[in-house]
Amino acid sequence: MDGAEADPDGARRVNVQGTRNVAALGVPVVYFSTDYVFDGHKRTPYVESDEPRPLSVYGKTKLEGELQIGAGWIVRSSWLFGPTGKNFVRTMLALGSERDEVRVVGDQRGCPTYVGHLAAAASEIVAFPEGVWHVAAEGECTWAEFAEAIFAEAGVDCRVVAITTEELGRPAPRPVYSVLRSEREAAPRLPHWREGLRACLERLAATE
Q1: What is the pLDDT of residues 173-208, one digit of tens each?
Q2: How far is CA 49 from CA 45, 78, 132, 142, in A?
Q3: End-to-end Cα distance, the chain
Q4: How far is CA 38 from CA 50, 55, 180, 193, in A?
């Protein structure tokens, strides 16, 4: 997100040109997009027919990437986390092991989505018509509420202090509300984000 603001050309090479190169192969594509193609002005969930209005370079280049897809499925999801790579759950666990208190944004609301559940759903979607699909975990929360749940489920004694987006002061603008839901009857329904969190923590524990 923030790196894209500092290097818009690099973000465009990855999200737009890279997608164009894949689409040029002429094979069906599953393109993973983001809730950040929306501006967050709604207070009800975003569905596939809502008009995207991205705020950030990241959101804009992901939307441009969507437009490169001819034959394929555009899967928009949100707040992804998993047992590997850099993501919010792993970051909070690392910080919580070092500190008594963390400051986390409490005025952005979305759907934390476990990548294992998303991957399983994506394998179902390819059996349905191509186009845009919204696939995100059931339930919604703020980043601060998510952090509290991470510490509670992992048994980490660390206090969460909710702060505002303005206090965080990140370069990239983020939507304050980006809950995704699907208006497609055939869309897979993912488990609640808390179930995804537990599955992720179990995978992490198994690798320790």
Answers
A1: 999 999 999 999 999 999 999 999 999 999 998 886
A2: 11, 17, 9, 24
A3: 29
A4: 9, 7, 10, 21
Taking the model in full, what pTM does it have? 0.93
- Respond yes or no: is residue 58 known to be catalytic: yes
Query: What's the residue count for the chain?
Result: 208
The token pair at 56 is: 């950030």
The single residue of 36, 46, 58, 177 carrying the catalytic annotation is 58
Q: What is the CATH number assigned to the segment(s) 2-207? A: 3.40.50.720
76 within 8 A of 115, measured Cβ to Cβ: no
Provide the token pair at 110: 């979305």
Q: What burial letters (b/e) apply to 8-20, b meaning 16+ CB within 10 Å?
A: eeebbeebbeebe
List the domain boundaries for the chain: 2-207
Give the model confidence (pLDDT) of 56-115 as tens digits: 999 999 999 999 998 899 999 999 999 999 999 999 999 999 999 999 999 999 999 999
Spatial separation of the C-alpha atoms in residues 35 and 32, rounded to whole Å: 10
| Of residues 90, 97, 99, 62, the one with CA closest to residue 146 | 90
Residue 129: exposure state from Cβ atoms within 10 A (0-12, 13-18, ≥19): exposed
